[in-house]
Records
---
Amino acid sequence: MPELWELSAEEVARRVGAREVSAVEVVESALERTARVEPLVAAYLEIFPEEARARAAEVDRRIAAGEPAGPLAGVPVALKDNLSLEGRAVTCASKILEGYVAPYTATAVARLLAAGAVPIGRANMDEFAMGSSCENSAYQITRNPWDLGTVPGGSSGGPAAAVAAGGVPLGFGSDTGGSIRQPAALCGLVGLKPTYGRVSRYGLVAFASSTDQIGPIARTVRDAALALTVIAGADPQDSTSADAPVDDYLAGIEDGVQGLRVGVISGVGGIGGLSGAAERNWRESLELLTAAGAEPVEISLPSVDASIAVYYVVAMSEASANLARFDGVRYGRRSPEADNLLDLYVKSRSEGFGAEVKRRIMLGTFALSSGYYEAYYGRALAVLERMRRELAAAFEKVDVVVTPTSPGGAFGIGEKIDDPLAMYLSDIFTTPASLVGLPAVSVPSGVDERGLPLGFQVVGRPFEEATVLRAARAFELQVGWQAAPGFRAAAGTRETG
Amino acid sequence: MALTHEEVRKIAALARLRFTPEEESLFVDQLGKIVDYIDQLQAFEGASEATSSLPPREAEDRPHECLPRERFLANAPAVLDAFLLVPEVKGGGEDA
């Protein structure tokens, strides 16, 4: 008999809804497991057990009163520390937001609560979602449960590590250039970035407004689909949220990939310096999808080579504008030393932001500054437009495009932290879908030579999450990935109990 | 394109940031490498007109009731009645 914390979100909701188990029991199991693994993994910045127990009791009360149980009844979840939950701190893992308390709840989180989900804590992240390793948190380094000497990926490394370590079946993060998909890949999980506009961003602290999206990290494709069904949909509080119909993403998920046209970018194996084992895994993944009935079609996307350069110019330009609001006046950290208003801005920001955030604000300010604007920001938008057209043309010939998620498995803690450019280049496969606003999912595809997980990415047309998830589900079945949470202690021994 | 110390100081001033000499040297080096990398954009062919197929449609931005002011002021570092308190505005350079 599996422990309650080992169950999928789908199974938890079914059992809680059928009154086979109470939400309180499920949450207690999640809190116990989390207490055991957290000293090793450090996935959370804050755990709120009492609030979680009270919410679980409320779910049980609703069910006992004959009210609808909700599609996520009693499911414990981890929230990335840039998602607002009224009355709880939100820091974006930054010193500049120390002490900030959310005055309202994010729409996506409100939908989770209404569906019966129970947040158990604020999960760690790279500061302001800027990073691919979770090492840029101002508070702590989160470790990958598969190998405690390696990073969980980023920026949603906290939610990914929390799910991989077993405490919760679902984590929620944000993805601006790969921040859900890459940590999901590195932690052996499923990570879904919905279409731009699919999920309301009201209550998500903004990083790059033209690409930010909220999405789930799960142990199975089915759980990711269930989570998306709950959080998707238009919201009057977010004018960029799309008024497109929301599917039941579980409805056709088992229909398979027979005849599905799968785009493979010509020369993709040579992009991004795929490591030996990752390259082999990529080729085997394609064979598995083909064996399931998909039809590979070679496509040409020459501008993909420029995606990192485009991403870092566009996203950092937007970040430099979005982060201008943190000035010590309205919220967050205020420097006690300031003599005048300008001094207050400069000191509060210089003391409050970490090195990576400063680097990115500087890069964005440079790209938007007089004399460089056309050469960098203007140029990046023009190349992005080219990329949009190439992808639109490709999607006339294929139903989905597939790539590896990351050039390799989890890297060592400290391995890339002093080389920002090397860290940026690890986003090569995830940034195009972000820039063009397409739905994309990373699904586990096996392990590298060290036994650490690798991911396979499926990208679809706008608002065709159902197709992307169907392909991911077929691939998951072919791979035969063990959905049970992996947990390997630093010594290399496996521990699942 | 290499960045000079002076350029880094100028960008920092625009971004309302200030660095120690050590941080400044590190940023001159790191930002220079990153700018070298993004310079590859010049070699890619761009397209000028926006297509209408892929970018999302934005919903109409309608006014609606805001949360109470006190809720937001609760996060402010310094408040006097319904106002935010800040240090003297004068001084600190022409763009203060």
---
Amino acid sequence: MSALLTITDASVRVGRALALDGVSLQVGPGELVGVVGPNGAGKTTLLRAALGLQKLVSGEVKLGGRDPRTTPPAELARRVAYLPQGRRLAWNVPAWRAAALGAPNAPPAKARQIALEALTAVGLETLAERGVLDMSGGERARVVLARLFAAGAPLILADEPTAGLDPDAQLLTLELLRGRVEAGGAVVVTLHDLGLAARACDRVVVLHRGRLAAEGPPRHALSPSVLAEVFGLDGAILDTPSGPVLAAGRTGPSR
Amino acid sequence: MSRSVLLLVLLCGGLVAALAAGAALGEVPLSAAQYLEALRHPSSAAGEIVWSIRAPRTVAAGLVGAALGLSGAVLQGLLRNPLADPAVLGVSALSGLGASLVIALGLAVLPGAVETAALAGALAAGGLIAALAARFREPETLILFGVSLSALGGAATSLVFNLSPSPIAAAEVLSWLLGSAANRDWTDIGWAVPAMIAGVALSAYSARGLRMLTLGDEAAAVSGLPMARLRAAAVAGAALLTGAATALAGIVGFVGLAAPHLVRAGARDDPGLTLLPSALAGAVLVILADLASRLIPTDVELKLGVVTALFGAPLFGLIAWRVARSWRA
């Protein structure tokens, strides 16, 4: 297995504090990796470091065997596609036009075709001409996923792609990302919903104050002791007939 | 696609009509026979009026409008802000400062001095903003720096007034700052055109970067496009266009703000497809404003910048109203 992403002992400083403190992570094809942790644990910083958007104070990042900070833009986009937090779109462009931004270096006709295929993959083919700001939040989330898929990169990094979505749309988002994994790609996704992480991910990485607190199969990484130490939760991931759920309460008045 | 093509056809038609009206109409009414004579004998009296006074003035107004409209569209795309225009980044203010200084120092008699100073001011502002844009990606930061640069330019221009050696020099500066295409000849246009061509080329190059910025800075940064270069091209292009427009006709406000808004719906909001229609709409707007300044019967001819601001400011209010309503929705 050739690694798509290798992070070795990476530390990142944001302001004075270490936002990432000696974190290592390897991601290979066919994996859906969930990154979880309380707010401020370093999840977004980890993704930004992986993309070369964040300078390391020590350690090393290799994206497809190469330092992303010295990789030319077009080459970098062939290796990785990134969905930042928020999915804000500045203008009310048609959905196909937004999806086509995934393939900016393709000729216009080809880019449109790629965009329409990506919209079909997320079930939005009938709304290709609809303005993205005239859509519901759930539809817009699928448009930005289509843009991500249109890029055609083997590795996808998605920062909280399920935030603000209803439960069905959250599951659909992870199903669509799973589809990319089954096609031989790899996905790293940050999540706040631990039940969703346990259900959807092959592997879960738990960050706590910039450090790697646990890593492994969901049930192992999200053990009761990790839930208590990292999240301040008293509980466990339970199996139910329709998948794993988080059953937990707060352990104390403050963290 | 057909919608944006239709928009371009309409705008081109409007531009041809506006150019024709600009060359034909003016304070001195001409008869049909005189128009024919002007067409047949450009050196006749009527021909002089049409070809040496009205035509260059109209072409200058059109070029100024096109440059400002395009510059506004580039900046709105770059900053992802529908309220951005060349004034926001301080480009107009520094351009105006450069020209004011030259006029107040009595150097305006030198050929090309005012134009060069206006362009130098715009480029200084553009260079500063481009350097900041390379360091800080957030559009809010650029707007904040632009506002401070704009205030500084305005204050320095006031200082020029304050210290200006004679009331005549001060009046000249003021008259220039109010903007006008009157008395522009083909030589003046020649001074501005090279900078405009460079500005158009840089803007066209930056178009795909502006479109990518629809996704926001973070996503654009790993989108496969050389965003740093495209962003720098956008800033430099907008600065050259604004500087050239200011050099040619002084400060003409609100066109850079209004033109992109008039065409945005027709271009389906696409920041790349908005550029060309914005330039055409800007040209039509300023030619019409210049015509209005000529034809509205006042004792002293109205200044171009006054007319565009009188029409532009209410439009700005209307835009703000609509934006505010969309925020509430």
